[in-house]
Amino acid sequence: MNCGVCRAYLREKNKCPGCQKGPTMISCQRCKLMNCPDRKGEFCFECEKFPCDRLNHLDKRYREKYGMSEIENLENIRDNGIDEFMKSQRKKYQSEKGTFCVHDKKYYK
């Protein structure tokens, strides 16, 4: 997931530094994807089991609740690189109102 559109990352109090900064939050320490025993690299698509049952479950929930696909995001990163993915995310979620949060549907400055 793009941390930049997550409520925990965007909020002011007890702000999450993002998954790539290390498992500093309790939720990160408990995350079954970040702590997957089969994890080989930085991204799930580097695994021979991609997409696994855990990721499929998360993807289904995010499609239904937030209108985004974690699997499509990962495929986009794999196919186009992280820089292009982030460029498309900024275009999609940032405006003069601020950054749109997929979780609470609010804009953050």
What would a concise description of this structure say?
By secondary structure, the protein is mainly alpha-helical. It has five helices and three strands, in the order αααααβββ.
Describe the structure in your own words.
The chain has 109 residues and is mainly alpha-helical. The chain contains five helices and three strands. It has one domain (3-108). A three-stranded antiparallel β-sheet has the order 1-2-3. A hairpin with a 2-residue loop joins strand 1 (94-95) and strand 2 (98-100). Helix 4 (70-80) crosses helix 5.
Topology:
Layout lengths: L6 H4 L15 H5 L22 H14 L3 H11 L1 H12 E2 L2 E3 L6 E2 L1
Antiparallel strand pairs: 1-2, 2-3
Count, helices: 5
Query: In sequence order, what are the helices and strands, one letter per element?
Result: HHHHHEEE
Q: What coarse outline follows from CA principal-axis ratios?
A: globular
The separation of the N and C termini measures 20 Å
The secondary structure category is: mainly alpha
Portion of residues within helices: 40-55%
Strand order of the largest sheet: 1-2-3
User: How would a crystallographer describe the biggest sheet?
Assistant: 3 strands, antiparallel
Count of distinct structural domains: 1
pLDDT < 50 stretches: none
Number of strands: 3
| Radius of gyration computed on alpha carbons | 14 Å
- Beta-strand percentage range: 5-15%
Mean pLDDT: 91
